[in-house]
């Protein structure tokens, strides 16, 4: 989807107006309103918000955290080439949602691309990006971008960091041309 909307991404701060934010999942609406700031302050999850230029109103958000996957969670083919380690380093996109007024305008995609690009720019090793879709619709959304089930746990999806880097690189060279 090539989005017509113009948004910037910023780390959540007190300058942002979250009060009107509503998405289809009440737990994800509540998280932004009640818990995102607290989780920022306690270094549990970094929250990034999408805002329209020259405004403070939050139109969407995502959170990212360092994470680890147990080696035993992976299928044999997902362990290929990995040295024996109990825990595999990963990044987690813990939450991602856009305001209901922005439905179908490409903001979900912009949020996911910004999260992936940000994770690819971190100078720390991680094998994969993990997401835990809240329901089947969210799972179908992530699947469009190459996320596939991790191990036997059908709910949890992952994207190898190598694939994410390629996708981000392709998007950057596409937007530069
Ligand atoms: C999932 C969510 C982020 C999608 O955001 P959106 O802004 O409506 O989606 P976009 O307009 O960016 O769509 C991007 C592409 O994904 C597709 N898409 C969107 N929702 C989809 C879904 N549920 N299943 C499959 N594809 C989906 C769109 O058709 C579009 O594809 P196209 O390029 O071929 O047109 C949004 O529905 C949302 O915030 N839901 C509530 C919270 C939630 O479920 N978050 C998921 C994380 S747990």
TrEMBL record:
The keyword Acyltransferase applies. Transmembrane segments: none annotated. Keywords: Acyltransferase, Toxin-antitoxin system, Transferase. PANTHER family: ACETYLTRANSFERASE, ACETYLTRANSFERASE-RELATED. Signal peptide: none annotated. One of its GO terms (molecular function) is acyltransferase activity. SUPFAM superfamilies: Acyl-CoA N-acyltransferases (Nat). This is GNAT family N-acetyltransferase.
């Amino acid at each position: 989807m090539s989005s017509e909307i113009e948004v910037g991404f910023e780390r959540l701060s007190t300058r942002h107006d979250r009060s009107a934010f509503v998405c289809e999942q009440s737990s994800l609406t509540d998280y932004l309103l009640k818990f995102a700031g607290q989780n920022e302050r306690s270094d549990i999850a970094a929250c990034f918000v999408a805002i329209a230029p020259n405004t403070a109103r939050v139109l969407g958000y995502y959170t990212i955290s360092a994470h680890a996957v147990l080696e035993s969670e992976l299928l044999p083919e997902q362990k290929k080439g990995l040295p024996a380690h109990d825990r595999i380093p990963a990044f987690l996109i813990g939450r991602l949602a856009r305001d209901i007024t922005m439905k179908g305008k490409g903001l979900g995609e912009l949020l996911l691309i910004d999260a992936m690009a940000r994770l690819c720019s971190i100078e720390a090793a991680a094998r994969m990006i993990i997401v835990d879709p809240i329901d089947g619709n969210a799972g179908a959304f992530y699947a469009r971008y190459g996320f596939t089930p991790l191990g036997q746990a059908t709910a949890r999806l992952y994207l190898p960091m190598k694939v994410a880097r390629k996708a981000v690189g392709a998007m950057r060279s596409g937007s530069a041309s």
